[in-house]
Structure formats: structure tokens, C-alpha cells
Amino acid sequence: MDVEALKRLAADSDRIVFFGGAGTSTESGIPDFRSQSGLFQTLRGTEHAPEEMLSHTFFMKHTEEFYRFYREKMIYPEALPNAGHRVLARLEAEGRLKAVITQNIDGLHQAAGSRHVLELHGSIHRNYCMKCRAFYALEDWFHTEPLVPVCKTCSGMIKPDVVLYEEKLNDRVFREAQEAIAEADLFIVAGTSLSVYPANGLLRYYRGDKLMLINKSPTPFDGSAHYLIPDSFSSVLVQLFADELD
């Protein structure tokens, strides 16, 4: 990686858009999904595959088992933003970063200070009663009983505002992500295997010639990147932007 050349490239960009996946949160102690140490690999061979337990059908038919898995494997309330999250927040504060698009549901970008965050797959921090639509924050139910949380008003079942398998992405959020990418001069994609549709289809909306792909393992879109960096998300962002942000 020619760090100095990439730093000059970054310094010349003022319409930056960032698109990240689970690999952006591993340095905060949250496992990813598809790497060798990821959730889908470590739980292979269990009674129900993680992909099955994170489906809408499983949620409706086996709600207690879903919530047991969700509470134990999907929520990390003690996790803190890492250096990469903080760099992005500072770039946004400077006015150079126009949007953070994330496949993650952990809320770490907002915890770091980012404001324009487009959460493609929802958030653990938003939860709704399926009956009366009352809102519940994570802390309203996570440490309480019963295992399946119920609404205090109508006793309806509470569902996390996360996009499960078989569910559709939010049209407004997806459209805003398309528009942000189309207007970007520098498009940074990091910490994602780019194997999940339709999120991976967002790359085709980029019209520029500065697509920077940062991922430790190969992706199906490596050939489309103008700058391919097999390294960690936070390490690269700190190297590229630390000088001007100090």
C-alpha cells in the first residue's frame, strides 16, 4: 500500500461516502459473520444454522429460541467505537464525509459521533411492539424478563427493528444510500464480504474513479476497485486521515 499516494488522494476528496460491514466492528469486540472466526463458522453444525435463526420465519415460529440467540450472539452492549469509527465521525464534522452507509446493527457509528448514518439492516437500539407500534430502546427490555419481551401497554410482542432474512430493506434508506454513492468523489468500502444482496448492489451506483476497497479477505468486487487494500478498517483510516485530523 502506497500510504503517501493514498493520503494525497484522500486529502483531495471532499465528498466522501463510506460503506461498511461487520468487519468494521470486529476491533470493537463484535464478531463478524463469514470469516474463519465469524459467527456463521463457529456455530456451523448446531441444531439451527445462524442464517435460519435470523430469518423472519424462525422469529415467528420459534420466538423464544430466536431471542435466546439474539440476546447471546447479536447484542454487545459494552462494545465501544474503535479508531476507524472515530475517524469517520471527525471527517463528517469537517464536512468532508457526506454519509456513512452500514450493514451493521450495533450503533457504533452514532456512538462515535456520526450523524448521517444510513442503517441498511436496522438497529438493535430500536424496537417496536408488533401490535401497537410503541417504541422501546434496547435498555428497556434487554436486561429484563421474560425472554421474549412484551409491550408494557398492550402486551404485544416486541420485535427488534432489524432486517431479518426474508424481510425487505427500508426503501427510503436504500434510496438515500444510492443517491449518496452517486454523488461521491471518494467511495470507501470496508469490512464487508460484499456477499449479501441487495446491499452489495449499491456499488454499481458509484460513478467516480476512486473506489477504495478495504477488506482483509477477497470479495467478489475486488476487480472493480481502483484501490484494493487487504488490511483492517481502522488501521487504514487512521493512516490516511490522522495527520490532517489531529
TrEMBL record:
Keywords: Cytoplasm, Metal-binding, NAD, Transferase, Zinc. Nicotinamide binds at residues 33, 105-106. Its main location: cytoplasm. The lineage of its organism: Bacteria, Bacillati, Bacillota, Bacilli, Bacillales. GO terms for molecular function: histone deacetylase activity, NAD-dependent; NAD+ binding; zinc ion binding. NAD(+) binds at residues 22, 26, 33-34, 103, 105-106, 121, 192-193, 215. Belongs to the sirtuin family. Class U subfamily. Its cofactor is Zn(2+). This is NAD-dependent protein deacetylase. InterPro entries: DHS-like_NAD/FAD-binding_dom, NAD-dep_sirtuin_deacylases, Sirtuin, Sirtuin_cat_small_dom_sf, Sirtuin_class_U, Ssirtuin_cat_dom. Binds 1 zinc ion per subunit.
